[in-house]
Amino acid sequence: MILRDEAGTRALGARLAAHVGVGDVIALSGPLGAGKTSLARGLLGALGLAGEAPSPSFAIVQPYDPPEVRLPVLHVDLYRIEHPDEVDELGLADARRDSALLIEWPERMGARLWPDALVLTLQPQPSGARRLTARVPAGWKARWSLI
């Protein structure tokens, strides 16, 4: 899928918001500037977040809870994680029981990334567009076809 610009990237995030629920994991992969945070902002905005979601690069985990959004979401940025063992300290496995997880830089988790995660990879193109590829697990197949 080609996302022509930032507006298209945010629009994809908004479409995803209609299909995400508690317990879901959406992993956003790609180099710096690929549009991961733009996609996350589109999803969070469609879930009801007023204003611009900050990048969680320094906080690592940015929580959003109702009534701010329609369901609890943890926006996670693992860019500063140096070893997969550090992910355990974040308590994401427990948090997943009560929230949806939106994870940037999931490759920093190593083998800890759940096999049922929807993995979206954004790759910048020379035109300024982004190429999106998806690894769609069984639990997402029916929902992904609606996006």
What this model shows, in words?
This protein has 147 residues and is an alpha/beta fold. It has one domain (2-144): 3-Layer(aba) Sandwich (Rossmann fold), CATH 3.40.50.300. The chain has 5 helices and 7 strands; from the N terminus they run E-H-E-H-E-E-H-H-E-E-E-H. The chain has a 7-stranded mixed beta sheet with strand order 1-7-6-2-5-4-3. A hairpin with an 8-residue loop joins strand 3 (61-64) and strand 4 (73-77). It is globular.
A few lines on this structure:
Helices cover 26% and strands 23% of the residues.
**Gross geometry:** globular
Count of discrete structural domains: 1
Write the CATH fold name. Rossmann fold
The parts where pLDDT drops under 50 for at least 5 residues are none
Rg of Cα set: 14 Å
CATH top level label: Alpha Beta
The helix content is 25-40%
Task: Walk me through the topology.
Layout (H helix, E strand, L loop, with lengths): L1 E2 L2 H12 L7 E5 L6 H11 L14 E4 L8 E5 L7 H4 L3 H4 L4 E5 L13 E7 L5 E6 L2 H7 L3
Helix pairs in contact: 1-2
Protein name: tRNA threonylcarbamoyladenosine biosynthesis protein TsaE
InterPro entries: P-loop_NTPase, T6A_TsaE
Family: Belongs to the TsaE family.
What keywords describe this structure?
147 residues; alpha/beta; Rossmann fold; 7-stranded mixed β-sheet; 5 helices; 7 strands; 23% strand
